[in-house]
Amino acid sequence: MEQLEFEAEKEKLKEVLEKYKDVIKYYDLRLEAIPKLYKQDTVMLENMLNMYAQKLRLMEKSVKNPYFARLDFARDGEQKVEKLYIGKVGVMDEENNSITIDWRAPISSMYYDSNLGRASYEAPEGTCTGELLVKRQYEIENGELKSYQDVDTVSNDELLKPYLGANADNRLKNIVSTIQTEQNAIIREPLNKNVIVQGVAGSGKTTVALHRIAYLVYNNRDKIKPEQYLVIGPNKFFVSYISGVLPDLDVNNVSQLTYSELCSDFIDEELELINEEEKLIKSISNEQELTYERLKVSMKYKDLLDEFINQLNKSIIPEKGISIKGMEIIPSNLIKEIYNSISTNEIYNTIHKKTERTKLLLEKYIEDNYDEIAEEIKEKYTDERKLRKDIGEAVKKYFKNLIPSTIKLYERFLEDLKKEDNNIKSIKQKIENNIKNIKDKKVEFEDLSALIYLKCKVIGTEKYATYRQVAIDEAQDFGDFSFYALKVLLESATFSIFGDIAQSIYQYRGIHKWEDVMEETFANDCELKYLQKSYRTTAEIMNEANKVIKHIGLDAAMPVIRHGEEVKYIPYNNLKNQVDIITNTITEYKQRGFKSIAVICKNEKEASQINDALAKHDIIAKNIKNSDTEYDGGICTITSYLAKGLEFDGAIISDASDGSYTPNKAIDMKLLYVAMTRPLHELRVLEQRGKVGK
């Protein structure tokens, strides 16, 4: 009986593959015909060519693995049992019959959430109920059925093991078929809901974030364009790392930016982000030296900016009025009177809008009172038209440069801040350094929120008001004010925020409690959700990493029961001995088929030193720095703080001795925890003495 069923499934796969080929042929023909059909409309021509080229690309990518699951569902009140084959993409034949169902479709949610028996799903027309008779999972490789199994739930460690055991470059390809119930619940939250996800290392935060965007794009495609979604990552390297995933999820044209790129684009200035390594090292040795940095990402800084903006609002109209040929024709007090008569409301909610409204009202005032205004100046003109033109030009010139650039405004704010009574001399010195850097358009991460907030409140949010959904990854490294400024900028958007307090390594600017963000930024219109199970590493690696994080009083992650080698702690004596051990380990990892291998170091100096030493052993490794944008696998040297959010088949921590990671420093233990939770399969830890986390 089982063999007969297997043969029937093979025939079904063969049938689906033939239908896929027919659809591919149809798309090919459409692509050929489109230039003739739309030759008079270049915009429509480009749109149609892009649409069908994308459909064709997805079809060709999925034709060798068209589906991963099947549901047999008997709807209430209907005799027929539907057999639904679920794949990465939904495919229809020429007669609009479903060949495969998209994993994002409402009915597909039963695969992730429902057990056999009574089941339901939420469709646009309402709740659909019935009996879920079969839930089947397939293993298909290169168009060939390898195996299948009937399951009651996808949330099962045994079912996950084959997928989690894959190399790092294959895991994202399989994630759709292994989304867990708690992950699926977050992915399918409605568009209009703000969510914050506290997820342990390896819990799938990044993949859930991207699949949530893919789900929302698919289910809101008639109302919202992909361009109205935004993904914010912690650095260029990380943004590049995830940028290839969304197109594979049938999502294109979604913006992907770092916080600094977002700020630079919004304020329309080329900004240079100052390297943070020196500050990070300083925070590890003496956190008290970074009081100013903590101030700049706090809500107190927002209050200081509000005071500055309030004063700017009062003083924006100059003391001098509008003059022509050295004669004042409109006094300043009249312009101020018009400006102050405009009440701040939803329409005139920025200084820029109020000045623009003032200009219009003033022009009307001049038109209504022209004879009186022109009376004294008339004698200097022989041409009435020239006089009218000069008055108009004078008004335009008066208002043109009334509001300085955002950079200049921030510089003025810092000058005012420096004058305030402050007992901490180090802060005054830092403010002076800050002003010098701002003049050169060099900024620290902590300045970005203030620059965004200033322009929002003084000028407005411009094009950013059109965004509807924003996903933020590695969000634990943003400060309270960072989130608040984003919410002001992206005023029409809801937020999906993903992070892990245990990996908050920028102590001087990172978040401490998600509840503060919920209250201050979202007025509690937000739900905090948890991902507590780690799917990345083996149980042996996760158990060792948990010892480190529990050492500083943070919650441990629950590992999926996938076993591997014990973590090996290896003593070394000097640099030569250290590099020899690393070289031998890399060779061993490569022999075992590991495609991505990381040597994780404490800082850039150590990473460069080891990278150079490895080259002398004929091991070419990419030394990843903050400015890098690509990593395509292979061997790399990388700092623990840049490795955050990434994963590798195998990892080597170059030095985890007490001199490198001090046990009683929370920041050191968080960095070590980040380093230890990067590998999927195996971890070696080098140390000069003793063991770490024991």
Question: What's the structural blueprint in terms of helices and strands?
Answer:
Blueprint lengths: L1 H36 L4 H21 L6 E7 L5 E7 L3 E2 L5 E5 L6 H5 L3 E7 L2 E16 L2 E7 L6 H8 L3 H11 L2 H7 L7 E5 L5 H15 L9 E5 L2 H8 L1 H4 L6 E4 H9 L4 E2 L3 H9 L5 H6 L2 H17 L6 E3 L2 E4 L1 H10 L9 H18 L1 H5 L9 H17 L5 H14 L5 H15 L2 E2 L1 H14 L10 E4 L7 H10 L4 E6 L14 H7 L6 E5 L1 E2 L4 H12 L7 E2 L8 E4 L3 H17 L4 E6 L2 H12 L6 E2 L10 E6 H4 L4 E6 L12 H11 L2 E9 L7
Helix pairs in contact: 1-2, 4-5, 6-7, 10-20, 13-20, 15-17, 18-19, 18-20, 20-21, 23-27
Protein model, in words:
- The structure is a single chain.
- The chain has 4 domains: 2-162, no CATH class; 195-306 and 407-531, Rossmann fold; 317-402; 539-687, P-loop containing nucleotide triphosphate hydrolases (Rossmann fold, 3-Layer(aba) Sandwich), CATH 3.40.50.300.
- The strands form 6 sheets. Strands 1, 2, 3, 4, 5, 6 and 7 form a 7-stranded mixed beta sheet that branches. A 6-stranded parallel beta sheet has the order 10-9-15-16-8-17, sandwiched between helices.
- The protein contains 27 helices and 25 strands.
- 46% of the residues lie in helices and 18% in strands.
- With 694 residues, it is of the alpha/beta class.
